[in-house]
Design brief:
With 293 residues, the chain is α/β, with parallel strands linked by helices. The protein has one domain: P-loop containing nucleotide triphosphate hydrolases (Rossmann fold), CATH 3.40.50.300. Helices cover 42% and strands 9% of the residues. It has a four-stranded parallel sheet, sandwiched between helices. Helix 11 crosses helix 12. The chain binds adenosine-3'-5'-diphosphate. The site of adenosine-3'-5'-diphosphate (A3P) has 20 residues, from helix 2, helix 7 and helix 13.
Protein backbone atom coordinates (compact mmCIF):
# COMPACT_ATOMS: atom_id res chain seq x y z
CA UNK A 1 0.00 0.00 0.00
CA UNK A 2 1.29 3.51 -0.86
CA UNK A 3 1.34 5.67 2.22
CA UNK A 4 -1.09 8.58 1.97
CA UNK A 5 0.56 12.02 2.02
CA UNK A 6 0.71 13.79 5.35
CA UNK A 7 -2.15 16.29 5.49
CA UNK A 8 -2.19 19.96 6.46
CA UNK A 9 -4.54 21.55 8.96
CA UNK A 10 -7.29 23.94 7.97
CA UNK A 11 -10.10 25.67 9.74
CA UNK A 12 -13.35 23.73 9.49
CA UNK A 13 -16.36 25.50 11.07
CA UNK A 14 -14.03 26.91 13.71
CA UNK A 15 -12.13 23.66 14.45
CA UNK A 16 -8.72 22.64 13.04
CA UNK A 17 -9.15 19.53 10.95
CA UNK A 18 -7.55 17.62 8.07
CA UNK A 19 -9.14 16.23 4.95
CA UNK A 20 -8.91 12.68 6.30
CA UNK A 21 -11.67 13.54 8.76
CA UNK A 22 -13.77 15.92 6.67
CA UNK A 23 -13.77 14.37 3.17
CA UNK A 24 -16.68 12.09 4.06
CA UNK A 25 -18.52 14.81 5.98
CA UNK A 26 -22.03 14.56 4.52
CA UNK A 27 -22.10 10.79 4.83
CA UNK A 28 -20.87 11.02 8.41
CA UNK A 29 -23.42 13.67 9.31
CA UNK A 30 -26.17 11.52 7.78
CA UNK A 31 -25.02 8.39 9.62
CA UNK A 32 -28.03 6.43 10.87
CA UNK A 33 -27.39 5.58 14.49
CA UNK A 34 -29.57 2.94 16.15
CA UNK A 35 -30.91 3.24 19.71
CA UNK A 36 -28.59 0.52 21.01
CA UNK A 37 -25.42 1.92 19.43
CA UNK A 38 -22.74 2.94 21.91
CA UNK A 39 -20.56 5.90 20.95
CA UNK A 40 -17.06 6.22 22.47
CA UNK A 41 -16.04 9.86 22.16
CA UNK A 42 -12.64 11.28 23.04
CA UNK A 43 -10.09 13.90 22.17
CA UNK A 44 -7.24 11.99 20.44
CA UNK A 45 -4.80 10.16 22.72
CA UNK A 46 -7.07 10.04 25.74
CA UNK A 47 -7.47 6.27 26.08
CA UNK A 48 -9.92 5.63 23.23
CA UNK A 49 -8.46 2.23 22.37
CA UNK A 50 -8.34 1.20 26.01
CA UNK A 51 -12.01 1.98 26.60
CA UNK A 52 -12.98 0.54 23.21
CA UNK A 53 -11.37 -2.75 24.16
CA UNK A 54 -12.98 -2.71 27.62
CA UNK A 55 -16.41 -2.27 26.05
CA UNK A 56 -15.71 -4.87 23.41
CA UNK A 57 -14.71 -7.46 26.02
CA UNK A 58 -17.65 -6.51 28.23
CA UNK A 59 -20.10 -7.15 25.41
CA UNK A 60 -18.48 -9.90 23.38
CA UNK A 61 -15.60 -11.31 25.44
CA UNK A 62 -17.22 -14.56 26.48
CA UNK A 63 -19.40 -15.04 23.39
CA UNK A 64 -17.19 -14.72 20.35
CA UNK A 65 -13.61 -15.71 21.01
CA UNK A 66 -12.71 -15.53 17.29
CA UNK A 67 -13.56 -11.87 17.36
CA UNK A 68 -10.93 -11.28 20.03
CA UNK A 69 -8.22 -13.25 18.26
CA UNK A 70 -8.74 -12.36 14.62
CA UNK A 71 -10.37 -8.94 14.22
CA UNK A 72 -8.29 -5.86 15.06
CA UNK A 73 -9.90 -3.37 17.42
CA UNK A 74 -10.15 -0.68 14.72
CA UNK A 75 -12.46 -2.97 12.72
CA UNK A 76 -14.53 -4.03 15.72
CA UNK A 77 -14.96 -0.43 16.83
CA UNK A 78 -14.94 1.69 13.66
CA UNK A 79 -13.66 5.26 13.73
CA UNK A 80 -16.72 6.99 12.32
CA UNK A 81 -15.25 10.03 10.56
CA UNK A 82 -12.01 8.57 9.20
CA UNK A 83 -11.67 8.57 5.43
CA UNK A 84 -8.17 7.72 4.21
CA UNK A 85 -7.40 6.58 0.64
CA UNK A 86 -7.11 2.80 0.29
CA UNK A 87 -8.72 2.15 3.70
CA UNK A 88 -12.44 1.53 4.05
CA UNK A 89 -14.13 4.57 5.56
CA UNK A 90 -15.18 4.39 9.19
CA UNK A 91 -18.75 5.17 8.23
CA UNK A 92 -18.90 2.23 5.82
CA UNK A 93 -17.33 -0.08 8.40
CA UNK A 94 -19.88 1.03 10.98
CA UNK A 95 -22.75 0.47 8.53
CA UNK A 96 -21.51 -3.06 7.94
CA UNK A 97 -21.28 -4.11 11.59
CA UNK A 98 -23.57 -7.03 12.26
CA UNK A 99 -23.08 -7.39 16.01
CA UNK A 100 -25.28 -5.67 18.57
CA UNK A 101 -24.63 -3.30 20.15
CA UNK A 102 -22.47 -1.53 17.62
CA UNK A 103 -19.50 0.13 19.29
CA UNK A 104 -18.46 3.25 17.40
CA UNK A 105 -15.53 5.57 18.04
CA UNK A 106 -15.36 9.30 17.32
CA UNK A 107 -13.01 12.19 18.07
CA UNK A 108 -15.56 14.79 16.99
CA UNK A 109 -16.15 17.76 19.26
CA UNK A 110 -19.67 17.59 20.67
CA UNK A 111 -21.17 20.08 18.20
CA UNK A 112 -20.17 17.89 15.22
CA UNK A 113 -21.72 14.61 16.40
CA UNK A 114 -24.26 13.32 13.84
CA UNK A 115 -27.74 14.18 15.02
CA UNK A 116 -29.07 10.61 14.83
CA UNK A 117 -27.07 9.74 17.97
CA UNK A 118 -28.99 12.37 19.94
CA UNK A 119 -32.32 11.57 18.28
CA UNK A 120 -31.96 7.90 19.18
CA UNK A 121 -30.88 8.72 22.72
CA UNK A 122 -27.77 6.55 22.28
CA UNK A 123 -25.47 5.85 25.19
CA UNK A 124 -22.26 7.83 24.88
CA UNK A 125 -19.04 7.32 26.82
CA UNK A 126 -16.63 10.24 26.84
CA UNK A 127 -13.05 9.72 28.05
CA UNK A 128 -10.95 12.72 29.04
CA UNK A 129 -7.22 12.67 29.82
CA UNK A 130 -5.20 15.48 31.35
CA UNK A 131 -3.94 18.01 28.84
CA UNK A 132 -0.23 17.56 29.54
CA UNK A 133 -0.12 13.80 29.02
CA UNK A 134 -2.47 14.13 26.07
CA UNK A 135 -0.13 16.65 24.43
CA UNK A 136 2.90 14.37 24.92
CA UNK A 137 1.07 11.33 23.62
CA UNK A 138 -0.24 13.33 20.63
CA UNK A 139 3.27 14.53 19.78
CA UNK A 140 4.63 10.98 19.58
CA UNK A 141 1.54 9.82 17.71
CA UNK A 142 1.98 12.51 15.06
CA UNK A 143 5.59 11.40 14.63
CA UNK A 144 4.60 7.81 13.87
CA UNK A 145 1.29 8.22 12.02
CA UNK A 146 1.34 9.16 8.34
CA UNK A 147 -2.20 10.46 8.24
CA UNK A 148 -1.39 13.13 10.82
CA UNK A 149 0.38 16.44 10.08
CA UNK A 150 4.13 16.65 10.73
CA UNK A 151 4.50 17.50 14.43
CA UNK A 152 7.73 19.53 14.20
CA UNK A 153 9.75 19.76 17.39
CA UNK A 154 8.26 19.37 20.87
CA UNK A 155 8.41 23.01 21.82
CA UNK A 156 6.56 24.15 18.67
CA UNK A 157 4.12 21.30 19.02
CA UNK A 158 3.28 22.36 22.57
CA UNK A 159 2.62 25.93 21.40
CA UNK A 160 0.27 24.63 18.72
CA UNK A 161 -1.48 22.41 21.26
CA UNK A 162 -2.09 25.45 23.47
CA UNK A 163 -3.45 27.37 20.47
CA UNK A 164 -5.81 24.52 19.55
CA UNK A 165 -4.03 24.00 16.24
CA UNK A 166 -4.33 20.22 16.41
CA UNK A 167 -6.41 17.75 14.46
CA UNK A 168 -9.87 17.87 16.15
CA UNK A 169 -9.12 21.32 17.44
CA UNK A 170 -8.64 22.64 20.91
CA UNK A 171 -8.34 20.09 23.73
CA UNK A 172 -9.72 22.76 26.07
CA UNK A 173 -12.90 23.27 24.01
CA UNK A 174 -13.31 19.53 23.41
CA UNK A 175 -13.24 18.36 27.03
CA UNK A 176 -15.31 21.36 28.18
CA UNK A 177 -17.89 21.06 25.42
CA UNK A 178 -18.54 17.42 26.24
CA UNK A 179 -18.52 18.11 29.99
CA UNK A 180 -21.22 20.72 29.59
CA UNK A 181 -23.30 18.39 27.42
CA UNK A 182 -23.72 16.21 30.49
CA UNK A 183 -26.03 18.83 31.96
CA UNK A 184 -28.65 18.25 29.31
CA UNK A 185 -28.00 14.74 28.01
CA UNK A 186 -28.39 12.02 30.64
CA UNK A 187 -27.09 9.11 28.54
CA UNK A 188 -23.55 10.49 28.66
CA UNK A 189 -20.98 8.82 30.93
CA UNK A 190 -17.94 11.10 31.33
CA UNK A 191 -14.86 9.29 32.57
CA UNK A 192 -11.17 9.97 33.06
CA UNK A 193 -8.02 8.16 31.93
CA UNK A 194 -6.50 8.92 35.32
CA UNK A 195 -9.36 7.18 37.17
CA UNK A 196 -9.00 4.17 34.91
CA UNK A 197 -5.29 4.02 35.67
CA UNK A 198 -5.94 4.35 39.38
CA UNK A 199 -8.58 1.62 39.62
CA UNK A 200 -9.71 -0.07 36.43
CA UNK A 201 -11.97 -2.49 38.36
CA UNK A 202 -13.96 0.42 39.83
CA UNK A 203 -14.29 2.07 36.40
CA UNK A 204 -15.44 -1.22 34.84
CA UNK A 205 -18.11 -1.45 37.57
CA UNK A 206 -19.26 2.08 36.75
CA UNK A 207 -19.42 1.25 33.06
CA UNK A 208 -21.52 -1.85 33.80
CA UNK A 209 -23.93 0.28 35.80
CA UNK A 210 -24.17 2.92 33.08
CA UNK A 211 -24.71 0.30 30.37
CA UNK A 212 -27.07 -1.84 32.45
CA UNK A 213 -24.81 -4.86 31.91
CA UNK A 214 -25.08 -7.43 34.70
CA UNK A 215 -21.62 -9.01 34.36
CA UNK A 216 -20.53 -11.60 36.91
CA UNK A 217 -17.55 -10.85 39.15
CA UNK A 218 -15.51 -13.39 37.16
CA UNK A 219 -16.42 -11.77 33.84
CA UNK A 220 -15.46 -8.33 35.15
CA UNK A 221 -12.18 -9.70 36.41
CA UNK A 222 -11.49 -11.24 32.99
CA UNK A 223 -12.05 -7.84 31.39
CA UNK A 224 -9.80 -6.14 33.93
CA UNK A 225 -6.90 -8.51 33.36
CA UNK A 226 -7.34 -8.51 29.58
CA UNK A 227 -7.04 -4.74 29.25
CA UNK A 228 -3.85 -4.04 31.18
CA UNK A 229 -1.28 -1.98 29.29
CA UNK A 230 1.14 -4.91 28.99
CA UNK A 231 -1.49 -7.27 27.73
CA UNK A 232 -2.79 -4.79 25.13
CA UNK A 233 0.76 -3.96 24.06
CA UNK A 234 1.49 -7.63 23.35
CA UNK A 235 -1.86 -8.22 21.65
CA UNK A 236 -1.63 -7.69 17.87
CA UNK A 237 -5.40 -7.14 17.76
CA UNK A 238 -5.15 -4.11 20.05
CA UNK A 239 -1.67 -2.64 19.50
CA UNK A 240 -2.25 -1.33 15.95
CA UNK A 241 0.77 -3.26 14.65
CA UNK A 242 -1.40 -4.46 11.74
CA UNK A 243 -2.09 -0.97 10.38
CA UNK A 244 0.40 0.26 7.78
CA UNK A 245 -0.09 4.01 8.21
CA UNK A 246 1.69 3.78 11.59
CA UNK A 247 5.43 3.32 11.99
CA UNK A 248 5.98 1.71 15.37
CA UNK A 249 9.75 1.94 14.98
CA UNK A 250 9.40 5.72 15.30
CA UNK A 251 7.18 5.38 18.39
CA UNK A 252 4.90 2.47 19.35
CA UNK A 253 1.15 3.11 19.53
CA UNK A 254 1.14 1.47 22.97
CA UNK A 255 3.87 3.83 24.12
CA UNK A 256 3.97 4.23 27.93
CA UNK A 257 0.39 4.27 29.20
CA UNK A 258 1.24 6.37 32.27
CA UNK A 259 -0.16 9.32 34.16
CA UNK A 260 2.56 11.94 34.57
CA UNK A 261 4.86 11.11 31.65
CA UNK A 262 4.57 14.83 30.80
CA UNK A 263 7.21 15.43 33.50
CA UNK A 264 9.75 13.80 31.18
CA UNK A 265 8.94 16.26 28.39
CA UNK A 266 7.96 19.65 29.83
CA UNK A 267 10.72 22.02 30.89
CA UNK A 268 10.09 24.06 34.04
CA UNK A 269 9.30 27.14 31.99
CA UNK A 270 7.06 25.27 29.54
CA UNK A 271 5.16 23.94 32.54
CA UNK A 272 4.70 27.39 34.11
CA UNK A 273 3.56 28.89 30.86
CA UNK A 274 1.20 25.97 30.20
CA UNK A 275 -0.37 26.22 33.68
CA UNK A 276 -0.94 29.95 33.36
CA UNK A 277 -2.61 29.53 29.97
CA UNK A 278 -4.61 26.51 31.24
CA UNK A 279 -6.09 28.49 34.10
CA UNK A 280 -7.23 31.21 31.70
CA UNK A 281 -8.84 28.74 29.30
CA UNK A 282 -10.43 26.27 31.73
CA UNK A 283 -13.12 28.43 33.28
CA UNK A 284 -15.50 25.68 34.43
CA UNK A 285 -14.49 24.97 38.06
CA UNK A 286 -16.37 21.66 38.13
CA UNK A 287 -14.13 20.02 35.52
CA UNK A 288 -10.98 18.91 37.32
CA UNK A 289 -8.50 16.52 35.71
CA UNK A 290 -5.56 15.16 37.65
CA UNK A 291 -2.08 15.43 36.14
CA UNK A 292 -0.56 12.99 38.61
CA UNK A 293 -1.77 10.22 40.86
P1 LIG B 1 0.76 7.10 25.70
O1 LIG B 1 1.16 7.62 24.35
O2 LIG B 1 0.89 8.13 26.78
O3 LIG B 1 1.44 5.83 26.05
P2 LIG B 1 -5.85 6.63 22.12
O4 LIG B 1 -6.30 5.21 22.13
O5 LIG B 1 -6.94 7.59 22.49
O6 LIG B 1 -5.13 6.99 20.89
O7 LIG B 1 -4.83 6.79 23.35
C1 LIG B 1 -3.56 6.21 23.28
C2 LIG B 1 -2.90 6.37 24.63
O8 LIG B 1 -3.55 5.49 25.56
C3 LIG B 1 -1.42 5.98 24.60
O9 LIG B 1 -0.81 6.77 25.62
C4 LIG B 1 -1.52 4.52 24.99
O10 LIG B 1 -0.32 3.96 25.47
C5 LIG B 1 -2.58 4.61 26.09
N1 LIG B 1 -3.18 3.31 26.39
C6 LIG B 1 -3.75 2.44 25.53
N2 LIG B 1 -4.13 1.33 26.17
C7 LIG B 1 -3.80 1.50 27.48
C8 LIG B 1 -3.91 0.69 28.65
N3 LIG B 1 -4.42 -0.53 28.60
N4 LIG B 1 -3.46 1.20 29.82
C9 LIG B 1 -2.92 2.43 29.88
N5 LIG B 1 -2.78 3.25 28.80
C10 LIG B 1 -3.21 2.79 27.61
Amino acid sequence: MDLPPRPTLFDFHGVSMTKYFTDNWDNVQNFKARPDDILIATYPKSGTTWVSYILDLMHFGDKCSDRETSIPIYLRVPFLEICVPSLESGKDLADKLTTTPRLIKTHLPVQFVPKSFWENNCRIIYVARNAKDTAVSYFHFDRMNHVQPEPGDWSNFLQKFMQGKMVFGSWYDHVTGWWEKKETYSKLHYMFYEDLTEDSGREIDRLCTFLGLPLSAAAKEAVRTGVTFDSMKQNTMTNYSTILIMNHNVSPFMRKGKVGDWKNHFTVSQNECFDEDYNKKMKNPTLKIRTEL
